[in-house]
Amino acid sequence: MAGAAINRGIDGGTMRWEDLRSSDNVEDRRGEGGGGMGFPGGGAGGLGIGTIVVLLIISYFTGINPAILIGGAERIGGRGGQQEQQADPQTQSRRRQAPTDESGQFASKILGNTEDVWSQILPQQTGKQYTPTTLVLYTGGTRSGCGSAQAAMGPFYCPLDKKVYLDTNFFKEMASKFGVKGDFAYAYVVAHEVGHHVQDVLGILGKVQARQQQASSKTEANGLSVRIELMADCLAGVWAKNSNDKYAELEQGDIDEALNAAAQIGDDSLQKRSQGYVVPDSFTHGSSAQRQRWFTAGYKSGQTKACDTFRTADN
User: Fold this and answer.
1) Fewer CB in a 10 Å sphere around the end CB: N or C, the chain?
2) 3-state secondary structure the chain
């Protein structure tokens, strides 16, 4: 029986997510508030992947040229990242309680499913053991190992504390601002961020960060960011393929939801919406067509090796 969809009455597939296993690696900080404005992951000599991911999501919502945001973060980068303060035992215990609301349960089950899939296929396909990430749910703002997390930043992965940060209101933002609806579209968002964690486990993020610090121009640094983001899209597709092969929780409409999400948050679509024209050299996540193509490549192959965006001349 199909599980309930996060958005009721939506055309398309209804992902059968309710039967999936819930993850124990969820910190529910919603309602705590906190976090201050700041740029996660800043550091002297260049910006980390976590910083770039977050800054570019800010640009999605504000319409500010990503190059301007990155330049500003670099100027203040000498302040360094701010580590999260350790919560007291009572707060830690409360955060570890299983979410009881639909959005929280959905995120927990998608995370649990990514754990089940990657724990099996990553050793098989790469010889690397998978160490799960932690998903932090928050409202408004919180503190991450990379610095402040704000709702306007959207979801992001912090490689310093190995956690994914998600304000679950982002799902509503996707629907209202981008017209992106459907439970699998939201699952794709979570899987994309988990894809960054997979890159971290494989040692890819650190290598790309080093290359970005040595980049001779913003255009070159942006190009590296595009490749890492498209790889995360592809890894989300790999997860979807292997999960569906095992659990048969998807319908064709679900895949269409993910492809629609990829199209709506492509750099060209976002720039047209925010400023009326496109500047390819400022792309940091890839065009709509690129994002759709790489998700599809991962979904069709189900193989991590199909996601090597750094070995292709044209993404």
Assistant:
1) N
2) CCCCCCCCCCCCCCCCCCCCCCCCCEEECCCCCCCCCCCCCCCCCCCCHHHHHHHHHHHHHHCCCHHHHHHHHHHHHHHCCCCCCCCCHHHHHHHCCCCCCHHHHHHHHHHHHHHHHHHHHHHHHHCCCCCCCEEEEECCEEEECCEEEEHHHCCEEECCCCEEEEECCHHHHHHHHHCCCCHHHHHHHHHHHHHHHHHHHCCHHHHHHHHHHCCCCHHHHHHHHHHHHHHHHHHHHHHHHHHHHHHCCCCHHHHHHHHHHHHHCCHHHHHHHHHCCCCHHHCCCCCHHHHHHHHHHHHHHCCHHHHCHHHCCCC
